[in-house]
Amino acid sequence: MVKVVHHIKGRKYLYEHYRVGDKVKCDYIGPVGDRSYATKSTFAPHVSPHKIETELVFQKQLAPTFDLTKLRDMLEKVEELELENVDMIAGELEFVLPAVSAVKRVAVERAEYRDLDFEIPLADFPGQIGEVELGATKANGGTRKNVIKVGGEKTMPFYHFEARNPHKPVIAYDVFDTKINLAGPVRKHFEDVLEDPAEWAKRCVKKYDADMVTIHLISTDPAIKGTSAREAAKTVEDILQAVKVPIIIGGSGNPDKDPEVLEKAAEVAEGERCIINSASMNLDYKRVAKACLDHGHVVLSWTQLDINDQKTLNKHLLELGIKREDMIMDPTTAALGYGLEYSFSIMERIRLAALKGDKDLQMPISSGTTNAWGAREAWMKTPEWGDREKRGPLWEAVTALTLCLAGSDLFMMMNPTAVQLFEDTVESLCGFREVEPLDVKDWIGMR
């Protein structure tokens, strides 16, 4: 059975065409949309024969399936067709599409490299980072062989087209007052001196030409050894005797023990202008600040990745009498792959705010780059990650370089290979080292 909708004078009428013997009968069902259908009426009274064929008669026996050509001719005047329970089998279909004119191919000229005029947009910052001196020579009441300066920037790092920043980044090698577990690529350089911090410091200076040394008094933590503040101070004295570079004195991170330890350390190092690491919001920073004021040291203002906390702590320290030239900030370093981009963002915002005139942030920035070794990707023996003897130093060097671009001035590091890689990169960027010129045409092309 085939249902056919005929359009007559703007209305739709439904008919059923079905086969009876060798004939196809047509029954009028009713207007489309009208529920009161007529049933089995042979002709609709208002449909004239010349409008549509109401009865289709085949002169020969109908085949078990419709012939598509005959069906097309039969329904030539039908505008809509609804099929029910009909199977159409076609061995081959041919689609006839309107002719489309061929698209004319347009010749495209080969792209070539061209030198274009470019005017560098220059920033004229009203602010400047304060300059901080580290270490004191005999002439200044100390015993260091030299003084190191950090800070003094007038623009962002390596923006030589805007201004020349006066000092390149400084690196301090980390030393610990007790033997600790170190990653293989670091341990192999200091294996025989891990239990003697003074010899460890000597190794850093004499073999690896360290600018500075950081002594971390971690054994004072009650959870590790509980070393007394007096014993820790003796370790500081040994370091000062062993090396003559400026030093950084760090506690264990225990907020209850650190103020006492740092007070004693500052006392025995009086006149040497060390960095006391650190004054923070989670300990009695007033005691640490007073120790720096009393014994002539630089205070490290440490916060945890929060620019507002950094401003607040800096203000508190300034109110206590610390001068801007006696303060360095440490907004916290997160390792590559473990939040480095957040550290970058915080340090960059601090540096830009300082250059734009925020006096509460116009101090040099320090980075605990050794945190890079906290990333398992830096030290784990995983062959598919590559040789860890290369991977680890790269991890530390990339962490340092990233934060250098954000504005950090001072870097606490451990691996000599990472230090060398970082220093070479910085010297190239600063223009202190000749590099082979690169013709951009050699590596830009188009196919």
Your description of this structure?
The protein is elongated, with a radius of gyration of 42 Å. The protein contains eleven helices and 15 strands. It has helices spanning 68-74, 184-190, 197-206, 229-242, 258-268, 285-295, 307-319, 340-355, 376-379, 388-406, 416-430, and strands at 2-8, 11-20, 23-31, 56-57, 80-83, 131-134, 148-151, 170-176, 212-216, 247-250, 275-280, 298-302, 327-330, 366-367, 410-413. It has an eight-stranded parallel sheet with strand order 13-12-11-10-9-8-15-14. Helix content is 28%, strand content 17%. The protein folds into two domains: 2-83, no CATH class; 131-441, Dihydropteroate synthase-like (TIM Barrel, Alpha-Beta Barrel). By secondary structure, the chain is an alpha/beta fold. Helix 4 (229-242) links the parallel strand 9 (212-216) and strand 10.
